[in-house]
């Protein structure tokens, strides 16, 4: 008879089988979870390595002119631009098995748990470099299980998709080294005033010790504790085979020179210009505010730091400190439209309002070159004669009466040429031209020149009564300077991300906006404001600064009761100045009315001081002729004054001046073969 099985043994075997099945099921479940996690991580792909980085702004010569951040200095550098000692010191003290594990150091984790149990609290960390990087990249610092699970998941994703050097590079570029320095480049510059690639072993060991407690181990806070921490780092490097004991001793004894200052801390170059650049990044290039401020962008601008300093210094030296008058100044390279200097006001801290791009003021007579360009396109020539005398204009079928005045109520009371009218800024001639062309002509022409503000169809538009932006007017003059070629003003040449990849590259192709021959003839008439040979019933408007110029310039000044302007150019550079009060207060002081011209001529002369003197080069379709400025006819040897004047080919005068000949009462011997009904009408006017 078989013995009955022992119930206890049967129960034990059954329990063992259940335990084994449960354990096996748990293993399968955990394996399934890991497999699902792995597949999910593969599907969603690698996490981005970008973190908030300081956006840097560079001038045209590569100098840093500004920085935007959230109070945290961050600069991304490549792995090869970090000293090997810094890399070794970091791995040695933070995660010596970094190159051996796959994101988690289980042996170190077990050791940390035992150490914490023995101490009865948290005394030793076990996070790997990859885990710390995941925490810095994507997570908050709250101590919850949800956060720990997310950190583990990001750690897996990092290890699955990036090389060890990529992860280490990212870690070194993101960790906190104290005093607002995030990343090794910012830390190296703050503590030692050098690039991360030039750190010595002693410097690297000290920096590697800071992240454990930036408020404790910073040498700027406690040099003693920083040195103690440095010793620990050096000792770990010896133990892990990175350096010898002798090297450690030498590094420990090395005297360190601390800087304690961020590289760009005192950079406040061209703040008004930088504001425009940021606006361009947003509105023209489509970057959002966060990317502009913290995207680690490298923004290369058109600013010429030398010209900017000259402009700021000139403004400061010209306008008294106790004056409340304001100004807007901008300079451009006419060949490519690059904005090279910009001053939007007297003091950015007191008033960040940018009077170059935001303010709209009456341009006064600076609008006249645009008017006369239009006139040249409608049959006028530089020697077209019209009478300068007090005139009452009746428009709108006589319903509107307009009676403009010349400066100081001075009139020639005879016919003058367009050349002289522009040089002395005759208002009567300008209004007659404007009304003859039709009020809509100047409105359309201003738009073609790039004026973005609304132009009123009124007789006074010829005298600049519709508001404009300084940048628009200087841009318009740059078109004349460049024989009609141009594009919108350029502030940014290139934008790179933190890795150096190009996100934007300026297209420097220019369009032919104006007729080149007509633009040149207009610009040559504008040289007249500096030519005393054109003094007539009034002196040329540039007479007060003629003695200060050393090269050919073309330009035009302008004034209203509340605004004073000067815009002019050489073949290499164009600049413009507006001066006035923000509240529209009238300019009554003689000095206030001269600031614009003084600032302009000082800036141009100093900016071009070391540049070759260039002449304006005539394009095809123009012809030069020596004329008598008084009569507008071809000059003879008897004429006391002769001036080379350019005309659109086929419109140059053919009559010879007889006013100064021995028999001045004799009628002209030759008749202008190009005279037309239009010219007869102009003579009548």
From TrEMBL:
Identify the residues that the record assigns to the Penicillin-binding protein transpeptidase domain, covering every copy: 328-599
User: What GO cellular component is one of the record's annotations?
Assistant: outer membrane-bounded periplasmic space
- SUPFAM superfamilies (UniProt xref): beta-lactamase/transpeptidase-like, Lysozyme-like
Chemical reaction(s) catalysed = Preferential cleavage: (Ac)2-L-Lys-D-Ala-|-D-Ala. Also transpeptidation of peptidyl-alanyl moieties that are N-acyl substituents of D-alanine; [GlcNAc-(1->4)-Mur2Ac(oyl-L-Ala-gamma-D-Glu-L-Lys-D-Ala-D-Ala)](n)-di-trans,octa-cis-undecaprenyl diphosphate + beta-D-GlcNAc-(1->4)-Mur2Ac(oyl-L-Ala-gamma-D-Glu-L-Lys-D-Ala-D-Ala)-di-trans,octa-cis-undecaprenyl diphosphate = [GlcNAc-(1->4)-Mur2Ac(oyl-L-Ala-gamma-D-Glu-L-Lys-D-Ala-D-Ala)](n+1)-di-trans,octa-cis-undecaprenyl diphosphate + di-trans,octa-cis-undecaprenyl diphosphate + H(+)
Tagged with keyword Oxidoreductase: no
Q: Gene3D superfamilies from the entry?
A: Biosynthetic peptidoglycan transglycosylase-like, DD-peptidase/beta-lactamase superfamily
Q: Where is the composition biased (Polar residues)?
A: 653-664
Primary location group: membrane
Q: Which GO terms describe its biological process?
A: cell wall organization; peptidoglycan biosynthetic process; proteolysis; regulation of cell shape
Any transmembrane segments, and where?
18-41
Alphabetically, the GO molecular function entries are: penicillin binding; peptidoglycan glycosyltransferase activity; serine-type D-Ala-D-Ala carboxypeptidase activity
- The Glycosyl transferase family domain, residue ranges: 62-237
Going by the UniProt record, its keywords in alphabetical order are: Carboxypeptidase, Cell membrane, Cell shape, Cell wall biogenesis/degradation, Glycosyltransferase, Hydrolase, Membrane, Multifunctional enzyme, Peptidoglycan synthesis, Protease, Transferase, Transmembrane, Transmembrane helix
Q: Where in the cell is it found?
A: Cell membrane
Return the annotated region ranges for Disordered: 653-672
Can the keyword Ribonucleoprotein be found in this entry's annotation? no
The family note in this entry says: In the C-terminal section; belongs to the transpeptidase family. In the N-terminal section; belongs to the glycosyltransferase 51 family.
PANTHER family the record matches: BINDING PROTEIN TRANSPEPTIDASE, PUTATIVE-RELATED, PENICILLIN-BINDING PROTEIN 1B
What is the protein name stated in its UniProt record?
PBP1A family penicillin-binding protein
| Organism whose genome encodes this protein | Heyndrickxia ginsengihumi
């Amino acid at each position: 008879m078989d013995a009955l099985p022992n119930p206890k043994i049967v129960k034990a075997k059954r329990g063992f089988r259940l335990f084994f099945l449960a354990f096996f099921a748990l293993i399968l479940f955990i394996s399934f979870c890991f497999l699902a996690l792995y597949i999910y991580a593969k599907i969603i792909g690698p996490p981005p390595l970008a973190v908030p980085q300081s956006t840097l702004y560079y001038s045209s010569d590569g100098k840093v002119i500004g920085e935007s951040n959230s109070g945290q200095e961050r600069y991304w550098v490549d792995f090869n631009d970090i000293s090997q000692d810094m890399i070794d010191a970091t791995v040695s003290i933070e995660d010596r098995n970094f190159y051996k594990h796959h994101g988690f150091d289980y042996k170190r984790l077990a050791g940390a748990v035992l150490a914490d149990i023995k101490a009865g609290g948290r005394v030793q960390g076990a996070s790997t470099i990859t885990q710390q990087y995941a925490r810095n990249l994507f997570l908050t610092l709250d101590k919850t299980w949800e956060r720990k699970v997310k950190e583990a998941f990001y750690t897996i994703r990092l290890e699955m998709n990036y090389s060890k050097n990529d992860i280490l590079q990212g870690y070194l570029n993101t960790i906190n080294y104290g005093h607002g320095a995030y990343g090794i480049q910012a830390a190296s510059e703050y503590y030692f005033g050098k690039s991360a690639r030039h750190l010595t072993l002693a410097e690297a060991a000290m920096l590697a010790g800071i992240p454990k407690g930036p408020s404790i181990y910073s040498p700027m806070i406690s040099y003693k504790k920083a040195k103690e921490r440095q010793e620990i780092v050096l000792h770990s490097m010896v133990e892990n085979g990175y350096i010898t004991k002798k090297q450690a001793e030498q590094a420990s004894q090395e005297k360190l020179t601390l800087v304690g200052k961020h590289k760009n801390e005192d950079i406040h170059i061209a703040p008004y210009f930088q504001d425009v650049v940021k606006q361009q990044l947003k509105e023209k290039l489509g970057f959002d505010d966060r990317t502009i401020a913290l995207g680690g962008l490298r923004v290369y601008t058109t600013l010429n730091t030398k010209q900017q300093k000259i402009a700021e210094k000139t403004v400061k030296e010209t306008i008294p400190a106790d004056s409340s008058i304001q100004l807007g100044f901008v300079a451009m390279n006419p060949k490519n439209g690059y904005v090279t200097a910009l001053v939007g006001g007297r003091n950015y801290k007191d008033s960040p309002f940018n009077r170059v791009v935001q303010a709209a003021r009456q341009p006064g007579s600076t609008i006249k070159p645009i008017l006369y360009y239009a006139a040249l396109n409608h049959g006028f020539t530089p020697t077209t004669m019209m009478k300068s005398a007090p005139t009452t204009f009746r428009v709108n079928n006589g319903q509107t009466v307009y009676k403009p005045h010349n400066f100081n109520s001075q009139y020639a009371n005879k016919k003058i040429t367009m050349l002289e009218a522009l040089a002395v800024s005759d208002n009567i001639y300008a209004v007659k031209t404007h009304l003859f062309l039709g009020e809509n002509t100047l409105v359309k022409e201003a738009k073609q020149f790039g004026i973005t503000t609304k132009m009123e169809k009124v007789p006074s538009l010829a005298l600049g009564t519709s508001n404009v932006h300084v940048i628009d007017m200087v841009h318009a003059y740059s078109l004349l300077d460049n024989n009609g070629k141009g594009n919108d003003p350029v502030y940014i040449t290139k934008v790179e991300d933190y890795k150096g990849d190009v996100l934007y590259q300026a297209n420097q192709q220019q369009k032919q906006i104006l007729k080149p021959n007509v633009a040149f003839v207009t610009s040559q008439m504008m040289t007249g404001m500096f030519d005393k040979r054109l003094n007539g019933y009034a002196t040329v408007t540039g007479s007060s600064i003629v003695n200060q110029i050393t090269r050919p310039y073309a330009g035009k000044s302008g004034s209203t009761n509340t605004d004073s302007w000067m815009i002019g150019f050489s073949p290499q550079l164009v600049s413009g100045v507006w001066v006035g009060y923000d509240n529209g207060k009238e300019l009554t002081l003689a000095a206030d009315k001269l600031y614009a011209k003084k600032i302009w001529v000082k800036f141009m002369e100093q900016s071009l001081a070391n540049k070759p003197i260039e002449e304006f080069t005539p394009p095809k379709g123009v012809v030069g002729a020596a004329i008598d400025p008084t009569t507008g006819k071809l000059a003879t040897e008897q004429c006391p004054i002769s001036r080379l004047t350019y005309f659109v080919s086929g419109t140059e005068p053919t009559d010879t001046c007889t006013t100064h000949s021995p028999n001045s009462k004799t009628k002209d011997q030759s008749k202008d073969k190009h005279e037309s009904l239009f010219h007869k009408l102009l003579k009548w006017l």
